[in-house]
UniProtKB/TrEMBL annotation:
Native species: Nostoc cycadae WK-1
Molecular function as annotated in GO: helicase activity
Protein name: Helicase
Keyword Hydrolase: yes
Keyword line: ATP-binding, Helicase, Hydrolase, Nucleotide-binding
Superkingdom of origin: Bacteria
Amino acid sequence: MVASQPINATVAIADEKIAPSGSISQANNTKNSVAIDKAEFGIARVDARGKVNFIPTFRVPLQEGSKYGWRIQLKDYQGEVTWREVLRLPKPPETWATDDGENFTVSADGTESVMRRKTIANDGVIENYWTIAAGDPPGKHKIQVYVDERLIATFDFDVFPVDRQQSTGRNRSL
């Protein structure tokens, strides 16, 4: 598992419905100054021109280099945001890594990571992406996102193995 910094590119949302096998839960508390306009989970694909296409889905292909993550639109919010992400895996990956390694911890059993960040919410958006690495496990995963120690979104998703021949575009012939 490799955590990536937010992708700095123009994001285009695909006109695709979210797969019913996953789920997003949002918690809003009007007593707190942070409210959620929209929470999305999906995969990020970068085309040859460097344009990022965010595809909402709860099924992530277990393919080295694939990127998945979340983005949350905060309602009427500008400025610095302190967020925490808890990522739970079905079993430990071979390795855990982040771009900078700061404010990142892994549980004793290796199945859960906690990342803490302070970021500027440009246009009220906060986001985080992970990159599939060799040795990452397939199965049910969960991400919980907290802002100022308050749970604001939960994303349940599946990471599924990809048939190698299918992913390379080769056809089987007898």
